[in-house]
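We emphasize that the prediction below concerns an isolated chain of 429 residues; any contacts that depend on oligomerization or on bound cofactors are therefore not represented. The input was used exactly as deposited, without trimming of termini.
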Amino acid sequence: MSLIVHKYGGTSMGSPERIRSVAKRVAKWSRAGHRMVVVPSAMSGETNRLLELARQLAPSRSTPALLRELDMIASTGEQVSVGLLAIALQAEGMDAVSYAGWQVPIATDAAYTKARIHSIEDKRVRAELAAGKVVVITGFQGMDPQGNVTTLGRGGSDTSAVAVAAALKADECLIYTDVDGVYTTDPRIVAEARRLKSISFEEMLEMASLGSKVLQIRSVEFAGKYRVPLRVLSSFTPWDIDIAEEARSGTLITFEEDEKMEHAVVSGIAFSRDEAKISLLGVTDKPGVAHLILGPVAAANIDVDVIIQNVSHDGRTDFSFTVPRNDYARTMDLLKTQVLPKVGASDLVGDPRICKVSIVGIGMRSHVGVASRMFSVLSEEAINIQMITTSEIKTSVVIDEKYMELAVRALHKAFDLEQEPAAAPTPNS
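Result of the prediction step, given as a token string:
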């Protein structure tokens, strides 16, 4: 008898009718003989509504005390969801029980609004499963060492579900969402985008980090660390779809890299439009200058992505990096006040209208000339590359935001991603 974890997003929990549909689907899996744990998100829009109420009353300055209360407020959305789903399951004839994160308990650190999971106690959940119950656990939340409620940040329900699956050593974790799997790129930009039947963990990790919104990156990291079999599939298929068909649907995130996977040189195109570029010109080229620039940025909890330092000329160099667009103004102010006087830069310039486009594929390990082909395609479209960064299985470029969709379409076509990968050649062929 398999132990299966289902996770449902806010859209799937958006109304009594949708909650009822989720309950029917879970009940179907339970009647098929599976032990079931369900991790739902708050109803769509509920967390935003709650936090907006808090913002109307909040002091102007953020403090740890304020962040604690925000977590108290935000966590209630998931608590409502688990209670409603447990009731709906009971209406389907299931013996169901709901638990908040602190009741399991899911232990986290004390970083309010963006806590990280330390451990999950599984005894209580296992006892309920042994008694034949469907267990419904809040996503997105846990408890710090002092017993305070914490939340895991946006997308935290994905992380919760994978972490619960890891703790319980579940046979599979199914992430039900409003899309039917992982695509070669966003179908809203490229109509010919193809749903992938499977994708390697490494590729999914890169896709999530580079802008793909299908899975939260921390959930993918958890899946990789604890080897949790993970599948992304649609919650909008009919609930009474044949269970064998449903179990094969969507996209499987696998840890087995077969020859077919490697034969596909590029598996997908990821992009992120919420990027900004900052350049310090004429910086004194001396040991430690990178730390002088980026140290204060890191201390301000601002993520830095692509970094380029030009070749020195007459003891001066240019230093460029990218940050999230939401942090652009704050980073520019910080550099003006804290950094410029120390590094002797002649100028500080920024561009908040850039984007990052990336090609991803484990086949890049065994194929040469992939990056060159990418650059050639962009050149043919007269798209200027401002920055480049690479890893073993990805190449990313920073370009002007207005060319993003053109670049994605051109690269998707150039690497034949609308076609199923050709079968790998046999040894005798």
